[in-house]
């Protein structure tokens, strides 16, 4: 590891000014849990790291918006803060539930919500949850602010649509009364592992009918992806084995799952069929 | 004054002596060691699995500011003319010499005062190779045209390898044979003959403390500070490489952060010594977790086992053909091949046995000693085979084993009696704890349940020597000088307890002096469950020697017989002040008879038998192949436990480790390259993977030749574990998976292939 500059700007404007739109060796760093590993492995060799920790006050925290219909979560909010927030637990219980399967206490104490999204590793557990909840991110760059769906941040395997001098500053997560959400992390090796598949489902249920839903697959693809064809099979349908089988077939047909160390493509497609059905059923049976 | 009971005697579960230092982070590890003027070495490794080196370009690396020197084999040769090392074969070059034999083999080293600079520079080295075809599979390597080595170079220290010297045109590095009776004739008359082939995979020791060595060669002396399980061997081998007498080489070892067999014999030490000699400064090489995958591994193994069984359930004949994938360098693989080959017919009383066990070279990272020394691989085969026979013949697996089990000291296939091997007691205990006679609900829906048992044994590397020194100081306190390495197993505590028992003192008054070959005497190595037995016997003899010297002193001082004058008073009487020592020495080498080279027969092939049994209950999700081990009972025979709590920790630790090899771990290659050489992709068990019902116990027995009835415990619970789980899985799903590890995907496709019992998708 060669030497590099570590700068700690005091304002967002200063931070953006220190970033470089052209130079990939200049990057922002939040909790650093992913970036440090890449640096240690010499996969990433920085010239300059723009450390965001001095911006924490403005960019961290969890608050309701004025209308009380969505949470605004600052980009530098740690996973631990989300995990232990009573408000999040009450309104988005899927988030603290997901935390229990994610990394470990030391990582959760420093990893940040914004950095997690910007990292764009398809195996991460929270991005599919944010997609299923319909979250949006607020991004600031030299040209000003813009908002986009979390789904639109991801361009591919470890790739985002963000410019090198843009920063995620907040995440807006809608709270949909009457909807339930779940995240299923399917591991095929040790219990504590990167997922072979992540399935995030948020749905409105009436009796045995799924009236509306957002269904997301992660880990088995190069980025977390909504399964729109499977959603179409399930939306408005009364759930039974035949519907779930058709939804599984649709999910397999609309995705390109590849072989990796967590399983062959065939096996993971099979797991997708099985776990998609189980996920829907467990959501129907759960109260939240 | 009240009389306090002496603590830390044999049988007491006293806490480990080093616990406080470890928990408070003050214990010494070599990773923390910094010496003045020390350079750090970072290794550049081969990118091809097999090839002749055309050229190595180090110019860019050497030009990096802060780089002291870049070293290749040509430089090494200037200080060590014949730079090949290894315990069984002198086949491993200190750095690649003209040829690379596995992807990841060390080719060059960058030295710099700053490790990060060295790492940065190492990444700038390039090498060009004329690639050769590679052979990775052990069975293929038996007959392949691809030769990993041009010529076999056995070390003189292994006389039984002498016949292999200079042999060319083969990858077979050892061909162990055992012949007992006439199996072929017996097969012809047996009622049934069964044959199955089993495979195990390559795994890595994964110590949390990666390999690390600091060498300081100066003024005609070499001092090594190293994380090694075998300081005495390191001294001998470094002295041989340098052509120096042993007394100019000093090897010291503090605590280890795990070894498991990986840190045995010679690993980084040859390279780091050569580097220090070359530059005249202390040098440290500390591997990363990822680099450990290229140092040493556990042998993959292909084992074809054939048994003749009569209608009454008696096994009348058995043949074992075992092929061990030793990787590119032999390391101690030939010994693994021989020792595990020796017991590969299992703990059964069979009249006709033939065993052929071969070590082969391949283009993989080397394989060596690994907790169990090959016994878990062979037991995977012979114990799954037992259940497959039982199922085919409609026999109860426990009853079938009991009928054939070696008992009452009956000789094992080699002719060595199974004295003090509690096979029947262990089997009975597992059966009882598993409640085997009770009905078992296997389920009928998506979740199927099964249970299985297995039992295995191992011989212990022989003959090996341990030497101990007990030093009683003038105040009556005691130093115990031994070269046994405490790598987490608790040997410091055990040895202090043995000495305390013999010296009739409190164990807390005994300080164990850590291995330092300038100070502590010879020990063959901390390996193969041998320390409690061998070093324990040596420690006991040293303490007895000290006691007889105290008695002689009493005599000399004219004390009346039976005088209880404390030692400090006696020494004061003799020297007129607080001065002097009582030094007791002891050594131990067990009785041994070298096996006949043609038949493998010996009346004394092992100093004791390690016996372990496992019972497992599992649940299988038939839709996904997911395997959940719901109950795991391990029972071992360790003789008399010196410290029952430490025994239990050893048993459970070995179980968790073998659980990884059974269900998770597998070094996977593509085109000769390891694809999962990091902890992100090579998963070992965590606490979450440990079964809910997890029992680890030892049976109460006595090893009559052991210190206070004790024998080794470190590996024993690894032996039967995989097979018990494999048998439980087969009981649940009706089909045996023959290859480890038992991954959900493999189980799912085994179910698919078997048909019938699976329930597809939601």
UniProtKB/TrEMBL annotation, chain A:
Protein name according to UniProt: Molybdopterin dehydrogenase
PROSITE patterns: FAD_PCMH
Residue span(s) of domain FAD-binding PCMH-type: 1-178
InterPro entries: CO_DH_flav_C, CO_DH_flav_C_dom_sf, Diverse_Substr_Oxidored, FAD-bd_PCMH, FAD-bd_PCMH-like_sf, FAD-bd_PCMH_sub1, FAD-bd_PCMH_sub2, Mopterin_DH_FAD-bd
GO molecular function, one term: FAD binding
PANTHER family named among the record's database cross-references: XANTHINE DEHYDROGENASE SUBUNIT C-RELATED
Keyword NAD tagged: no
SMART domains, alphabetized: CO_deh_flav_C
Species the sequence originates in: Rhodoplanes roseus
Family matches, as Pfam families: CO_deh_flav_C, FAD_binding_5
Keywords from the UniProt entry: FAD, Flavoprotein, Oxidoreductase
TrEMBL record, chain B:
Pfam families named among the record's database cross-references: Ald_Xan_dh_C, MoCoBD_1, MoCoBD_2
GO molecular function: iron ion binding; oxidoreductase activity
Source superkingdom: Bacteria
Domain Aldehyde oxidase/xanthine dehydrogenase a/b hammerhead: 24-133
InterPro entries tied to this protein: Ald_Oxase/Xan_DH_a/b (IPR000674), Ald_Oxase/Xan_DH_a/b_sf (IPR036856), Ald_Oxase/xanthine_DH-like (IPR016208), AldOxase/xan_DH_MoCoBD1 (IPR008274), AldOxase/xan_DH_MoCoBD2 (IPR046867), AldOxase/xan_DH_Mopterin-bd_sf (IPR037165)
Gene3D superfamilies: Aldehyde oxidase/xanthine dehydrogenase, a/b hammerhead, Aldehyde oxidase/xanthine dehydrogenase, molybdopterin binding domain
PANTHER family listed in its UniProt record: XANTHINE DEHYDROGENASE, XANTHINE DEHYDROGENASE SUBUNIT D-RELATED
Protein name (database record): Aldehyde oxidase
Organism: Rhodoplanes roseus
């Amino acid at each position: 590891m060669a030497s590099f500059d570590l700068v700690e700007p005091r304002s967002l404007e200063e931070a953006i000014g220190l970033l470089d739109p052209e130079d990939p060796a200049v990057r922002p760093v939040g909790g650093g849990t992913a970036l440090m590993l890449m640096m240690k492995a010499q996969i990433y060799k920085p010239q300059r790291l723009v450390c965001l920790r001095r911006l924490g006050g403005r960019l961290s925290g969890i608050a309701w918006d004025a209308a009380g219909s969505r949470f605004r979560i600052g980009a530098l909010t740690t996973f631990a803060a989300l995990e232990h927030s009573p408000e999040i637990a009450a309104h988005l219980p899927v988030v603290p539930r997901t935390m229990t399967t994610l990394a470990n206490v030391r990582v959760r104490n420093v990893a940040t919500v914004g950095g997690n999204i910007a990292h764009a590793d398809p195996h991460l557990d929270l991005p599919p949850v944010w997609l299923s909840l319909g979250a949006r991110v607020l991004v600031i760059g030299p040209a000003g602010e813009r908002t986009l769906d979390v789904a639109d941040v991801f361009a591919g395997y470890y790739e985002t649509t963000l410019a090198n001098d843009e920063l995620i500053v907040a995440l807006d997560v809608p709270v949909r009364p009457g909807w339930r959400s779940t995240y299923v992390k399917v591991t095929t090796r040790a219990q504590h592992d990167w997922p072979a598949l992540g399935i995030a489902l948020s749905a409105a249920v009436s009796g045995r009918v799924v009236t509306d839903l957002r269904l997301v697959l992660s880990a088995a693809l190069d980025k977390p992806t909504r399964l729109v064809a499977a959603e179409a099979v399930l939306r408005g349908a009364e759930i039974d084995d035949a519907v779930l089988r058709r939804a599984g077939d649709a999910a397999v047909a609309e995705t390109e799952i590849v072989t990796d160390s967590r399983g062959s493509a065939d096996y993971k497609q099979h797991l997708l069929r099985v776990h998609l059905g189980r996920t829907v059923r467990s959501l129907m049976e759960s109260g939240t | 004054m009240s009389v306090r009971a002496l603590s830390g005697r044999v049988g007491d579960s006293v806490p480990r002596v080093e616990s406080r230092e470890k928990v408070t982070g003050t214990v010494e590890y070599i990773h923390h060691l910094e010496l003045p003027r020390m350079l750090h070495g970072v290794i550049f490794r081969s990118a091809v699995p097999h090839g002749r080196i055309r050229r190595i370009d180090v110019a860019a690396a050497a030009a990096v500011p802060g780089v002291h020197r870049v070293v290749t084999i040509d430089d090494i040769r200037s200080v060590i003319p014949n730079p090949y090392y290894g315990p069984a074969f002198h086949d491993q070059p200190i750095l690649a010499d003209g040829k690379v034999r596995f992807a990841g083999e060390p080719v060059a080293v960058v030295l710099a005062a700053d490790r990060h600079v060295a790492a940065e520079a190492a990444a700038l080295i390039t090498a060009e190779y004329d690639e050769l075809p590679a052979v990775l599979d052990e069975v293929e390597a038996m007959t392949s045209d691809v030769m990993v080595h041009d010529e076999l170079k056995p070390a003189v220290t292994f006389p039984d390898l002498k016949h292999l010297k200079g042999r060319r045109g083969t990858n077979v590095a050892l061909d162990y044979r055992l012949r007992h009776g006439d199996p072929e004739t017996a097969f012809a008359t047996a009622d049934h003959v069964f044959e199955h082939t089993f495979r195990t995979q390559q795994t890595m020791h994964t110590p949390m403390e990666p390999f690390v060595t600091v060498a300081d060669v100066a003024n005609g002396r070499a001092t090594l500070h190293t994380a090694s399980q075998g300081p005495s061997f390191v001294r001998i081998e470094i002295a041989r490489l340098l052509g120096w007498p042993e007394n100019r080489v000093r090897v010291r070892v503090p605590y280890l952060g795990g070894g498991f067999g990986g840190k045995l014999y010679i690993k980084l030490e040859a390279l780091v010594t050569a580097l220090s000699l070359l530059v005249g400064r202390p040098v440290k090489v500390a591997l990363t977790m990822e680099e450990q995958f290229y140092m040493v591994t556990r042998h993959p193994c292909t084992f074809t086992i054939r048994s003749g069984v009569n209608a009454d359930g008696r096994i009348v004949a058995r043949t074992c053909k075992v092929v061990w994938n030793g990787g590119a360098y032999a390391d101690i693989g030939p010994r693994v091949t021989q020792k595990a080959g020796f017991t590969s017919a299992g703990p059964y009383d069979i009249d006709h046995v033939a065993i052929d066990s071969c070590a082969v070279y391949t283009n993989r990272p080397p394989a060596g000693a690994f907790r169990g020394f090959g016994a878990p691989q062979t037991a995977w085969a012979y114990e799954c085979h037992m259940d497959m026979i039982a199922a085919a013949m409609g026999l109860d697996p426990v009853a079938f084993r009991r009928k054939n089990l070696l008992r009452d000291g009956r000789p094992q296939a080699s002719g060595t009696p199974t004295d003090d091997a509690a096979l029947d007691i262990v089997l009975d205990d597992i059966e009882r704890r598993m409640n085997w006679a009770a009905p078992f609900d296997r389920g009928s829906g998506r979740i199927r349940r099964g249970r299985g048992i297995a039992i295995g044994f191992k011989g212990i590397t022989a003959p090996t020597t341990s030497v101990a020194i007990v030093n009683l100081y003038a105040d009556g306190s005691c130093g115990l000088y031994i070269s046994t390495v405490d790598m987490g197993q608790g040997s410091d505590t055990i040895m202090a307890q043995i000495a305390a028992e013999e010296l009739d003192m409190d164990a807390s008054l005994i300080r164990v002096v850590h291995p330092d070959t300038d100070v502590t005497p010879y020990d063959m190595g901390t390996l193969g469950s041998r320390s409690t037995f061998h070093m324990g016997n040596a420690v006991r003899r040293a303490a007895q020697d000290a006691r007889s010297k105290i008695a002689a002193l009493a005599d000399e001082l004219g004390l009346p017989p039976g005088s209880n004058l404390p030692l400090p008073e006696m020494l004061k009487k003799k020297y007129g002040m607080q001065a002097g020592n009582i030094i007791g020495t002891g050594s131990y080498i067990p009785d041994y008879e070298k096996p006949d080279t043609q038949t493998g027969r010996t009346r004394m092939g092992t100093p004791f038998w390690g016996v372990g049994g496992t019972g497992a209950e599992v649940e299988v999700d038939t839709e996904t192949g997911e395997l959940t081990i719901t109950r795991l009972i391990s029972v071992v025979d360790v003789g008399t436990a010196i410290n029952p709590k430490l025994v239990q920790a050893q048993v459970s630790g070995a179980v968790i480790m073998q659980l990884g090899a059974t269900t998770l771990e597998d070094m996977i290659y593509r085109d000769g390259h390891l694809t999962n050489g990091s902890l992100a992709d090579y998963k070992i068990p965590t606490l979450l993977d440990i079964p809910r019902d997890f029992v680890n116990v030892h049976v109460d027995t006595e090893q009559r030749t052991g210190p206070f009835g004790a024998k080794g415990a470190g590996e024993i619970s690894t032996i039967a574990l995989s097979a018990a789980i494999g048998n439980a899985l087969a009981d649940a799903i009706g089909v045996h998976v023959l290859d480890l590890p038992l991954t959900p995907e493999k189980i799912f496709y085994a179910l698919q292939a078997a048909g019938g019992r699976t329930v597809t998708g939601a």
